[in-house]
């Protein structure tokens, strides 16, 4: 399942821990997982293949960050590549008045609904919209357009008596001009699938009305068929943009990536519900997250990249393995983690961890631990064995805790070091393997 892409990545990249750089060989298994995940998100196989190549190129040679797992790191790279491919900020329509927009697409994709949504959005930007109904084959489509226009108070042109679509389009355009409209949206007929007659009709209409924008309205759930549909329409009438609808459903968004990559036509808007206001400019970052189906790994990795001093993290990890870790190191590590925000908020960002609550009690315990370590001298932090009773009493007083608290921390620390020593040896490595580390 897609939800587990990050987990799958983590498994596939398990062996990368402690390796310096990402290379073609050490990423091979992970990249295979990426491909499978994209295919199950309904991404066209050609697009998936090219995408894996792009990710490989972007990841190759990158240092493996010590503070996040290689799996998380690669998911971030994939996310960035996805956003780049989907095209952030491409939602601009031509800035001109009058503006003529023709909507094309398959039957049921949401053309009529989108005509009204688009008119409503652009009306807020100062346009005076008029809608022209060119879907003559379905009387219900004309009724629907008229109802929506009445509801939103838009001018609307329909002709139930003519079967000549280009002529209706032309007449609607003239009429709209008389009405002083400076935005004319043409709602066209769809079919259940692409066929010759549909394409011919759309072409003839296009030649008559010469639209500034030709937008393909496509259902996000279209899946593999999406590329075919977009290519046909693009070849016939040269699309200027795509509106992806029904993103409030559980479509995985692979269609978006496929259509954009193969046709190069930008996705400009997205429909997110049946209501008139459920319509937004297309956000590539949200779509990327939908395709990846992950938790907020991306921002976790960004935070780590911003805040963690990689060399320092590496140094501490090595000290831990050699069981030379002292209170000074412990403090340094606590600070690194704190720079990234509270432990609670960090945990929330990890996939599968969002349900686990880190309460105030744990946060307070960490604060107390820090206070105790801060009350030690540097020498004491480096050599905890010199911490005799009088030193412990002084530290407790200095940190506003009790001798019992101090004793407990020192005891736990001793145990932790013992564990690390074990882990460092060959026995430890076996133990780690048992735990899947
Ligand atoms: P057309 O045949 O292409 O004109 O499609 P319609 O505009 O008639 O839409 C078909 C159905 O999809 C209608 O029931 C719409 O309410 C619904 N629809 C359109 N856009 C969206 C959307 O973004 N989300 C959801 N949930 N439904 C939508």
UniProtKB/TrEMBL annotation:
Pfam families: SRP54 (PF00448), SRP54_N (PF02881), SRP_SPB (PF02978). One of its GO terms (molecular function) is GTPase activity. Belongs to the GTP-binding SRP family. SRP54 subfamily. GTP binds at residues 105-112, 187-191, 245-248. The lineage of its organism: Bacteria, Pseudomonadati, Verrucomicrobiota, Opitutia, Puniceicoccales. It comes from Ruficoccus amylovorans. It comes from the Bacteria. Involved in targeting and insertion of nascent membrane proteins into the cytoplasmic membrane. Binds to the hydrophobic signal sequence of the ribosome-nascent chain (RNC) as it emerges from the ribosomes. The SRP-RNC complex is then targeted to the cytoplasmic membrane where it interacts with the SRP receptor FtsY. CDD domains: SRP_G. This is Signal recognition particle protein. Composed of three domains: the N-terminal N domain, which is responsible for interactions with the ribosome, the central G domain, which binds GTP, and the C-terminal M domain, which binds the RNA and the signal sequence of the RNC.
């Amino acid at each position: 399942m897609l939800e587990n892409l990050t987990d799958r990545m983590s498994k596939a990249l398990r062996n990368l821990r402690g390796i310096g750089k990402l290379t073609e060989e050490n990423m091979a298994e992970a990249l295979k997982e990426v491909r499978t995940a994209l295919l199950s998100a309904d991404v066209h196989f050609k697009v998936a293949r090219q995408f894996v190549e792009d990710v490989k190129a972007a990841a190759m040679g990158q240092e493996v960050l010590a503070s996040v797992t290689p799996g998380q790191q690669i998911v971030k790279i994939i996310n960035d590549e996805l956003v780049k491919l989907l095209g952030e900020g491409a939602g601009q329509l031509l800035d001109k008045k009058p503006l003529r927009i023709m909507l094309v697409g398959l039957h049921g994709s949401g053309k009529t609904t989108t005509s009204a949504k688009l008119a409503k959005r652009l009306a807020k930007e100062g346009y005076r919209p008029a809608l022209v109904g060119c879907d003559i084959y379905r009387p219900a489509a004309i009724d629907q357009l008229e109802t929506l226009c009445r509801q939103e108070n838009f001018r609307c042109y329909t002709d139930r008596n003519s079967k000549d679509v280009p002529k209706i389009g032309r007449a609607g355009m003239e009429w709209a001009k008389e009405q002083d409209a400076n935005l004319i949206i043409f709602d066209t007929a769809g079919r259940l699938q692409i066929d010759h007659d549909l394409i011919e009709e759309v072409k003839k209409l296009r030649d008559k009305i010469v639209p500034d924008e030709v937008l393909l309205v496509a259902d996000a759930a279209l899946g593999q068929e999406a590329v075919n549909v977009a290519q046909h329409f693009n070849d016939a009438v040269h699309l200027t943009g795509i509106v992806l609808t029904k993103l409030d459903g559980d479509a995985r968004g692979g269609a978006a990536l496929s259509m954009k990559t193969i046709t190069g036509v930008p996705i400009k808007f997205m429909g997110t519900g049946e209501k008139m206001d459920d319509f937004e400019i297309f956000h590539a970052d949200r779509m990327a997250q939908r395709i990846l189906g992950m938790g907020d790994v991306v921002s976790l990795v960004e935070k780590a990249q911003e805040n963690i001093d990689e060399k320092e993290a590496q140094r501490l990890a090595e000290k831990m393995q050699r069981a030379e870790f002292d209170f000074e190191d412990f403090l340094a590590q606590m600070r690194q983690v704190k720079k990234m925000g509270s432990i609670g908020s960090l945990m929330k960002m990890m996939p599968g961890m969002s349900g686990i609550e880190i309460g105030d009690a744990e946060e307070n315990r960490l604060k107390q631990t820090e206070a105790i370590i801060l009350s030690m001298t540097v020498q004491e932090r480096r050599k905890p064995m010199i911490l005799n009773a009088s030193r412990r009493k002084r530290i407790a007083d200095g940190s506003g805790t009790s001798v019992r608290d101090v004793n407990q921390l020192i005891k736990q620390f001793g145990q932790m070091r013992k564990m690390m020593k074990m882990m460092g040896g060959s026995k430890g490595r076996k133990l780690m393997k048992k735990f899947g580390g």
